[in-house]
Design a protein that fits this description.
About 55% of the residues lie in helices and about 5% in strands. Helix 24 links the parallel strand 1 and strand 2. By secondary structure, it is mainly α. The chain has a domain of about 160 residues. Helix 7 packs across helix 9, helix 16 packs across helix 18 and helix 19 runs parallel beside helix 22.
């Protein structure tokens, strides 16, 4: 107990070194922050009702709003037969919003608006305590108007909640350094663990920066620092896996099957399918392996050089990514250089620059960590880049403050850093804008002219050729405006829904041909990515008619209809059809339900109708478990004739591949699938055992 008390006790020598009195935030800064939050709220909610659906997640949100069982387990369907292929914490605010306001695009997107506003306020808090009110406002502004984040905070996406919890954890960690209180370090671990519920292991990217900078900056003894960090790490891990542990504790027969796994284990899905197996295939057993490659950066059809570049930091400099988060790369690089120079200078003068040093160390370590991970993996969505926004914003604020301070110091060689940064930023901005000539070609002449003129004037002032204070102030304002002009225009383009991204993927501005993700053909019959058959009107109408037909003839059953594709199930569930049994999960490769399960459900009268869809409705081409169910259905059930569904139905007028089968009791006997065996249990029930699940059949 005595050692535990010492762990939480404040170090006597830390009071003067860490917790120094701070000036109150000036009123002008508070009002400016209020204005920034108000403008951001208006921008994020401008197209709220047009934010659209990411059908796979929107279906899960609907299911979670209809069933508390589905809510707790993060299930795709209201009956909670299968989970999402990732943790569902990010859907909790959306599901609650739907429960309160009803099912609509704006209700799904509304929580992300508030998550964005909390993020902006938290960024100001952190940067203000490190860099002062100017640095806080600059950092908050850059985060608020990062093009990618505007799209994320105005659509129902998982990255919004992750970003919010990450920044809030930085607030708590910062307070742990300032106050030397253990409780703040523990709170930081709790917040990282909550971020884990939003996007799993990506929430842990901030941990190396927390640990390394705490070891360097905390005035505690080395042993106590290590001990405190160990406690915080245990708390982080415990909160991160808390829900997973509870979920796995339930018997397999009383919880949904875990999509993304082959062993129905949620740890396999999180740490294998969504985690370490991206780096080392097959490292975590029990996780579904990646599907066959398509025409992307990882495809054999892609040139070898491009495949190599796709796994290096160089890919982050390509326009498709840089226009979303990297407009100020030159400024951030200047912030790193100037920050190192300023820290070394103050050390020589025996003036320890604690706040600046911590801000620089934290931002650089976090930036290196995120860039390293993003470089190693293929980026399926640009939303992954959101983790870069915070360190880049702080580094840019450092660059602005230090370059202006050095510029006004006559005897400093670093006074030339400001004109050099303006020149580099001008060239970089022009190159990015030139990559989208159809959208922003008009921006090139003014940016190039103003940028080069500003750089020349600043160089003249730095060299002593021009000394007018008015000119200095004017050119400084113009230079700052130039730096944010292009990204601000890219951000404000989101006022037009055509340039605002979508619920499936975050982006602002135009989306051109990508080197790593070739443009999608929107004319194809089925949706892409997370879209369902809802985007194929004829197909969705046929499936809606099929469900109505089955519902009228099923009576009181557990499932009105089973369908072999989530793209088929999603529109039905979104349209209040809650008794749908999806087969195969998102991947179309999850062994849930198996053919044994389907046979058992049909035999005991819990399921009568099965809808088989065409291959385009599947997320994968290799679907052995789905194929087994299809074979069993065709062998044991009767095809419902087209005319039976209605002479005027879209199905009767089209040649769509969807086929509805009736497996009612009037059909031939259903043979027991091979591999099934029965066990007589106490109480007279018979238990049917397959390789993956356990089901009871009343005798």
């Amino acid at each position: 107990m005595r050692s535990l008390a010492r762990l939480f006790r404040t170090s006597p020598r830390s009071t003067t070194a860490v917790e120094r009195p701070r000036a109150a935030t000036p009123r002008w800064a508070k009002w400016t922050l209020f204005g920034l939050l108000s403008a951001s709220a208006a921008l994020y909610s401008w197209n709220l009702n047009e934010s659209g659906f990411s059908d796979y997640y929107a279906t899960a949100a609907k299911s979670m709003s209809l069933s508390w069982r589905a809510f707790f387990s993060g299930a795709f369907d209201p009956s909670a037969t299968i989970t999402l292929d990732k943790l569902s914490g990010f859907l909790i605010p959306q599901a609650l919003s739907v429960k309160v306001f009803g099912y609509a695009p704006w209700a799904l997107a509304l929580p992300q608006v508030f998550e964005g506003l909390i993020t902006i306020a938290a960024v100001f808090w952190v940067a203000n305590r490190w860099l002062g009110p100017v640095g806080g406002l600059v950092s908050a502004f850059l985060v608020a108007y990062t093009p990618l984040l505007i799209s994320i905070f105005s659509h129902p996406m998982e990255d919004a909640l992750l970003t919010m919890f990450t920044v809030l954890s930085v607030v708590a960690w910062q307070r742990a350094l300032e106050t030397d209180r253990m409780r703040w370090l523990v709170l930081a671990g709790v917040l990282v663990g909550l971020g884990f519920q939003a996007k799993m292991m990506q929430a842990w990217l901030v941990l190396p920066a927390f640990a390394l900078v705490y070891l360097l900056a905390s005035p505690q003894s080395r042993g106590r620092k290590v001990l405190r960090l160990s406690v915080a790490a245990v708390v982080t891990l415990a909160v991160s896996i808390s829900w997973m542990t509870i979920f796995n504790a339930f018997p397999v027969s009383s919880r949904p099957y875990v999509d993304g796994s082959t062993d129905n284990n949620i740890f396999s899905m999180v740490f294998g399918y969504n985690g370490l197996n991206h780096f080392i295939p097959g490292l975590v057993p029990g996780a579904l392996a990646p599907d066959s490659p398509t025409a992307s950066a990882g495809s054999p059809a892609t040139p070898l050089l491009l495949r190599i570049v796709a796994h290096t930091p160089a890919k982050l400099f390509f326009p498709e990514y840089a226009t979303q988060v990297g407009w100020l790369y030159p400024v951030a690089i200047a912030g790193i250089v100037l920050g190192i120079v300023e820290v070394r200078r103050r050390r020589r003068e025996n003036r320890m620059p604690r706040e600046l040093q911590v801000a620089l160390q934290f931002s650089v370590v976090l930036l290196i960590t995120v860039v390293g991970v993003l470089s190693a993996i293929s980026l399926p969505h640009t939303a992954y880049l959101a983790s870069l926004a915070l360190p880049l914003a702080i580094l840019c604020a450092i660059a602005g403050i230090l370059s202006w301070r050095a510029f006004r110091t006559a005897n400093s060689v670093w006074r030339f850093s400001l004109p050099a940064t303006v020149a580099a930023e001008t060239v970089w901005t022009v190159w990015l804008v030139a990559s989208y000539p159809a959208f922003a070609r008009w921006m090139i002449p003014p940016i190039l002219t103003v940028g080069l003129v500003s750089a020349s004037v600043l160089f003249a002032i730095a060299s002593g050729s021009l000394r007018s204070r008015r000119v200095v102030a004017l050119v400084g304002v113009v230079s700052a405006g130039l730096a944010v002009a292009a990204p601000l225009i890219w951000s404000l383009s989101t006022l037009d829904p055509a340039f605002a991204g979508s619920a499936n993927d975050a982006y602002a501005g135009p989306v051109g041909a990508s080197l790593f993700n070739p443009p999608v053909k929107r004319a194809q019959a089925y949706g892409t990515g997370l879209n369902s058959n809802r985007v194929a009107t004829n197909t969705a109408n046929v499936e809606d008619i099929a469900y109505d037909y089955a519902a009228k003839r099923s009576g009181r059953v557990e499932y009105v209809l089973a369908t072999d594709a989530w793209r088929s199930a999603a529109p039905m569930i979104m349209d209040e059809a809650s008794q749908v049994l999806p087969i195969g999960g998102f991947t179309s490769r999850a062994p849930s339900p198996t053919s044994v399960t389907i046979a058992n459900l049909v035999r005991r009268g819990a399921l009568r109708f099965i809808l088989l869809t065409g291959p385009d409705a599947k997320s994968s081409a290799a679907t052995p478990d789905v194929a087994a169910i299809q074979d069993w259905t065709r062998a044991n059930c009767s095809l419902v004739p087209q005319r039976t569904l209605g002479e005027g139905s879209p199905r009767a007028r089209s040649r769509l591949p969807d086929s509805l089968y009736d497996c009612g009791r009037s059909q031939p006997p259903h043979p027991q699938p091979q591999g099934q065996r029965s066990i007589k249990m106490k109480g007279g029930d018979r238990w049917e055992i397959s390789q993956t699940r356990l089901f009871t059949v009343a005798e």
